[in-house]
Amino acid sequence: GKGTYPFYMLKEIDEQPAVMRKLIATYAGENGLMKVDPEIVKAVQESDRLYIIAAGTSYNAGYGSKMMLEALTETPVELGVASEWGYGMPLLSKKPFFIFLSQSGETADSRQVLLKVNELGYPSLTVTNVPGSTLSREATYTMLIGAGPEIAVASTKAYTGQIATLAFLSKAVGESNGLQIAKDFDLVKELSLVAQSIEATLSEKEKIAKIVEKNLLTTRNAFYIGRKMDYFVAMEASLKLKEISYVQCEGFAAGELKHGTISLIEKGTPVLALISDPSVAAHTRGNVMEVVSRGASAIVIAQKGLEQESDDFVVSKVHPWLTAISMVVPTQIFAYETSVQRGLDVDKPRNLAKAVTVE
Ligand code: F6R
């Protein structure tokens, strides 16, 4: 049950540090080696391209994992929207390996692709939160997130858990390939820091509640912007906000805004900027100034060290491959607070079901 929590979503947001620690216990061995099925590692090593197939939040988690997967497996990663790939797959590489990301393991759109993949005889891995689910049974391999039941329709701990699970796979493959950057990537330490970063963010819910009250209570639309990893987080952040608060929101590559979309900025339009990457921070700051000069209400979520204004929301620092996890948490709380303050049913948004078992 949800205990003293008003909504499951809040409980599941709060569970994320524990999910990170549980994943460490599951996938990190005492000897410093990853406890990832060697068969899966081998299948990835034999592949020339990794295809991540998923829907919604799980699709966004694929993007949040892409940089780390590519760096550590030295294999290109391509993302596929399940509902589109079901109707026809693009030209595939010679040795594809398919990774299905699905909290429920029951998403019909993803299953359509898996059926095709099985027909073609390609190997596959399902990363899921539900043992014995359809996508788990029908794929060659399974890795479990083990986040515990996710009841709220809006997915939170499955997103962060999927990325962390793929971190173990990435590290295991890199190590097996003798890659120095894989050996240097101390995943136990880094995920512990992620857990601490999440805890620090969770202790600042009041601050987010106040920003929401000031900026998001009545607006009909909003934007999340970011560059590189923060762009991927912006896509997930905006999906979450749309889903449970009914605010129309776009997650945008910060640099794309000026190529048309900036015409939508009016007085008071909330623009939430994600800034975790020092190499592009100044550019995104520039985009914040552009929208502010057109009347937008800017809200900056910055990683520690990149904050500038006293009201920037600060997220403590984690490894660059893992910022999708740390940076998404405040955005989950932004979505949650906006929904609560608008008096909506956070756990059961209109028109939505937890597992989408129709195409
Ligand atoms: C968003 C959400 C959906 C699901 C999507 C895929 O919060 O919950 O977008 O992420 O329907 O579901 P799974 O991961 O179960 O395949």
Automatic annotation (TrEMBL):
Known catalytic reactions: D-fructose 6-phosphate + L-glutamine = D-glucosamine 6-phosphate + L-glutamate
GO cellular component entries: cytosol
A GO biological process held by the record: UDP-N-acetylglucosamine metabolic process
Localization (cell): Cytoplasm
Residues of the active site: 354 (for fru-6p isomerization activity)
GO molecular function annotation: carbohydrate derivative binding; glutamine-fructose-6-phosphate transaminase (isomerizing) activity
Highest taxon of the lineage: Bacteria
EC number in record: 2.6.1.16
Location (main, coarse): cytoplasm
SIS domain residues: 40-179, 212-349
Keywords: Aminotransferase, Cytoplasm, Glutamine amidotransferase, Repeat, Transferase
Role noted for this protein: Catalyzes the first step in hexosamine metabolism, converting fructose-6P into glucosamine-6P using glutamine as a nitrogen source.
Oligomeric form and interacting partners: Homodimer.
UniProt protein name: Glutamine--fructose-6-phosphate aminotransferase [isomerizing]
Full protein stretch here: 246 to 604 of 604
